[in-house]
Amino acid sequence: MRLSLIRNLKFGPQVKELRLHLCQTSPESQGAREFVQKHYVNIKKDNPKLPILVRECSGVQPRLWTRFELGKEKSVPLTNVSADAILKMVENIK
Questions:
Q1: Distance, CA of 57 to CA of 54 (rounded, Å)
Q2: What is the pLDDT of residue 6?
Q3: According to the model, what pLDDT value does residue 8 have?
Q4: pTM for the predicted model, two decimal places
Q5: Based on the number of CB atoms within 10 Å of its own CB, is 71 exposed (0-12), middle (13-18) or buried (19 or more)?
Q6: Nearest alpha-carbon partner for 91 in 20, 31, 25, 2
Q7: Cβ atoms 87, 2 nearer than 8 A
Q8: What residues have CB less than 8 Å from 66, skipping those under 6 apart?
Q9: CA separation for the pair 7, 31 (Å, rounded)
Q10: pLDDT 10s per residue in the chain (94 long)?
Q11: 47: nearest Cα among 10, 19, 13
Q12: Which pLDDT value is given to residue 5?
């Protein structure tokens, strides 16, 4: 069921970019890594013109950044957050 919901995840024109910062090995970033593996392809297919950046850096705390019109940015920490919880956060981006 979750796959069918994610297939309909389209962002409006106010969302200009998504960035996901994560560590390749830390347990705190496990949910972020799983999110990329499970959901990145479908989100990108539904939003082909939206830049979705995955930034990996050793030791970094996981965080989701959203850039909106006029350069406004919002971020949420993803430390120890599950892939499904991250998906819910992404679904609620406005």
A1: 10
A2: 44
A3: 75
A4: 0.87
A5: exposed
A6: 2
A7: yes
A8: 15, 17, 18, 19, 73, 74, 75, 93
A9: 20
A10: 444 444 578 999 999 999 999 999 999 999 999 999 999 999 999 999 999 999 999 999 999 999 999 999 999 999 999 999 999 999 999 7
A11: 10
A12: 44
Q: Residue 74: CA atoms inside 13 Å, Cβ hemisphere, count?
A: 11
Using CA atoms, how far apart are residues 67 and 75, in angstroms rounded to an integer?
A: 9
Residue with tokens 């996901």: 20
Burial of residue 29 (CB within 10 Å: 0-12, 13-18, 19+) is buried
55, 21 contact by CB (below 8 A): yes
Structure token pair of residue 47: 């939003």
**Residues recorded for the chain:** 94
Distance of CA 67 to the CA centre of its chain: 12
